[in-house]
Amino acid sequence: MQKAQWKAGKTKSRFFRGYAHFPQSYAHFQKNVDMHPEVEALFVKGKINGVINKVSRGSSMPDLIAAIATALLPSGVGIIRLSGDGAADAAEKIFRPQSGKPLSYYPDRSLIFGEVYDEQGEMIDRGLAFLSHAPHSYTGEETAELHCHGSPMVLTLVLEALFAVGARQALPGEFTKRAFLNGKLDLAQAEAVIDLIDAETPAAARYAAGQLEGTLSRLVEEIYGGLVNTLAHFYAVLDYPDEDIDPFREETIREALQAGLDRIEELLSTYHRGRQITYGVPCAIIGRPNVGKSSLLNAMAGYQRAIVTEIAGTTRDTIEERVTLGGVLLRLIDTAGLRETEDLVEQMGVARSRAAAEEAELSFLVLDGSMPLNGEDWEAIALAKKSANTICVINKADLEPAFEVSALQGDFSSVCRVSAATGTGLQELEKVVAELFPFGRKTGSAPFLTNARQYAAAERAKDCLVRARDGLFEGLPPDLVLTDVEGALASLGELTGRTIRDDITDRIFQRFCVGK
Q: What is the dihedral of CA 472, 474, 480, 483, to 10 degrees?
């Protein structure tokens, strides 16, 4: 297309009015975007250097916060954390180095031994202290930590002493929120912090560590940068027709849109696996009454989670427990035995069992290997076949078998003989689970979407690019097409926090514990 055609419908550079989701500086922009050479030349000449507005997420908070950063349980060491203006002064008021020199005398991040005193000058404890000055700290502010003995009472007294010298109680996640607001972490990395704290498996911990290191953020930046480059080139051609810039072609837009769309769709495809790694795989334990479902749950959990009796129909409702099997976090659901019954309560339990089995991503079909298969067993087998993945677990392997295991090999790819009473066969069951969900053995280097907020933002970005691509094929003017690209940028910005509402960030950081 010719330059004259690009001018049609011109709306005076929406792109260059400055959006909150654009990079915080030209240097950052240049680092993250493979810019078209002619467009870059305009930046260097200073003609459009100011169009990428510097946008600050926030600034250092004027108030000083303090919190106990370790669990309030008796332990060897407990940590109290401070952040904000006056953190060093507050720590110095209650901590006296044994050397007699003031705390501020020592180099940044030096561990200093000394005593902690309360407002009345009485010693509370002996321990360590260190300062970390802005901006080279976790929050980007002046921070301090006091490492004391891990008595809940000692930690409480130290915290009260800090309140007496001007600190206030930190809110849940406020330290990490300040790190985000001060540009030390983006939002995806901040969410990885709580995922790392909550990790229950090696895979979940490795994944969260990778996200904290920036695997997801870097991918989003690459997609974002490619789209920004497309917009920058287009508007440079539109607004500076006298400059020697290559004409912008429809084919260029189409290729850029498709490249961004492909990468977003690839990212969206990771959501299901990311949820499994972080929150666990829903797994229903199904079978007729008294085959050992609750006993199997207890054996995997390592304690008596469910009541076990010889009375059929003991389990009336679904019982849930989180266990790690084969390096995979399972959200086990023990269900009521499947059978016809006149008991109204048990009928409700059986209905819930069927629903749990149909919705689960994995089912353990439990059969009693010491008894011949009956009609209720075959009903359970039929239900198990509806599950996405089913492992047939033949219980009571310590007793004489009453039927041939080979009879079920054709129905299920995985058949394990176990004894919930003795633990025999559980290791084999672990291996089968690990083979079905191999992410338990992989590292966390790949980017994943793990929560609904991230998925929704990526989905909106995808929808915007689909509309832009379809509009281009339908012959809409390029500046109208690129309006949807700007919408995609805004949605991608929500992933890393470039564009995010305060109420959403508040909700995210409420997931955190106090002191982090």
A: -60
